[in-house]
Amino acid sequence: MEDAPLPSEQGNDGECSTSQRGPDGIAAASDDQNGASVGRKEFVAPAVGMEFESYDDAYNYYNCYAKEAGFRVRVKNSWFKRNSREKYGAVLCCSSQGFKRIKDVNRLRKETRTGCPAMIRMRLVDSKRWRVLEVTLEHNHLLGLKSYRTIKKMSAGTKRKSQSSADAEERTIKLYRALVIDAGGNGNQSCGENEARSLSDHLNHLNLKKGDTQAIYNYFCRMQLTNPNFYYLMDLTDEGNLRNVFWADARSRAACVYFGDVIYFDTTFLSNKYEVPLVAFVGANHHGQSVLLGCGLLAGETMESYTWVFKAWSSCMSGCSPQTITTDRCKILRGAIEEVFPRCHHRFGLSHIMRKVPEKLGGLNNYDAIRRALTKAVYEFLKVSEFETAWGIMVQRFGIGDHEWLRALYEDRVIWAPVYLKDTFFAGMSSARPGESLNAFFDKYVHKQTPLKEFLDKYELALQKKHREEALADNESRNASHGLKTRCSFELQLSKARPMRS
């Protein structure tokens, strides 16, 4: 048992490391624009049940929490195995804990210890992780912001550029928030899939399975090292459980500058209860191809989650507000968009509505005739009066005026029917003809049972394929000859002209 910091910790009281070492020993960093929550920097307080990959991770975490709270940390006790000298337990406390012995008191210096009870006790458990077993948060003295010197940990032979203490604090805070809570905060408890889903809905946090938290953490660490402008935000519950996540890589952030005026907010996987509760912000590039503008994992289809992810996206894109957003038909989504993007034109995706026709109307008599009449009213009329007349005739002819889904659909007609949307800019993402549809960006890469860890691997494959398709389209547009509309020699001359490069 020791009453002083270990050699690797000497002089580190109150210091916050600029990097966190992942399972593979690589120091990970986070973009300096990231935040633990939108518009507010917040660090989750220690709690019983938190687990860390190593003692250093736990030590650095408590140091960073202390820095934000306004106190210093020291190691009160450490326990080692007799033979291997491997550390298996420790108590970290406030630097004001206890009182100095009389012989150690310097008469020229004022006594600073107050017998403060604040501490955490942790131990190495069977899973080879460090678990917090006891926590005392209360202090018996005033807390205040102090100036701490910042250090950086590096693996042997690894060099990193020096960075400001503010950036260091941001990086450590966000990476530890991603790591400390495991699988919904349930520790090593096991439960059935249905029970886990029920518990997740009840507690309003992500239904993470074993290893999912580590997979997210590893992915974010890897992206921080390879993608300098990578951005992510995390939303935690008051208990410290992971509720919502948002991220966007450098390419998505750059694409939003050019293609962020019209967005398709894809909730296909979330609303259909896929294993991965994924949402995606999708735009259309200069070739009419879909381009990813950001991704998120949401705990549920709630006003709070949708509002959070919209604010996260806007913060990532420097306050960008789209001109048009197309979504599935959902009143909760409509309310969240009105709150976050009040000037945006929100439209319901026509393809989503038409895909639900068999489900909603399939049980009616004369279904085929009703479907044909509905399709004709939606796609073939160019005037509002013609559309409304055709709708009225359909309802009266088949006696479906009291059908709840059709009645609600008619009430919302101005935000989904093409005849009302002639002045709305969709950037080619409007299905104005029968058979057209807005497919999910990851449609061919994710099925209903795809686990989160597998999705993170497929995510990069999907982006690589999209990037190749865009590069091929760019090359083709530069080298392909333009189609001529007339036989005019002047048009032929212009078709051969190439823009001057600056």
Automatic annotation (TrEMBL):
An example Gene Ontology molecular-function term: zinc ion binding
Superkingdom to which the source organism belongs: Eukaryota
Domain (MULE transposase): residue spans on this chain: 262-355
InterPro entries xref list: FAR1_DNA_bnd_dom (IPR004330), FHY3/FAR1 (IPR031052), MULE_transposase_dom (IPR018289)
Location within or outside the cell: Nucleus
Biased composition (Polar residues): 9-21
Region named Disordered: 1-34
One CC-aspect GO term: nucleus
Keywords attached to this entry: Metal-binding, Nucleus, Zinc, Zinc-finger
Domain FAR1, residue spans: 60-143
Pfam family membership, one: FAR1
Similarity comment: family membership: Belongs to the FHY3/FAR1 family.
PANTHER family (UniProt xref): PROTEIN FAR1-RELATED SEQUENCE 10-RELATED, PROTEIN FAR1-RELATED SEQUENCE 6
Function: Putative transcription activator involved in regulating light control of development.
Protein's recorded name: Protein FAR1-RELATED SEQUENCE
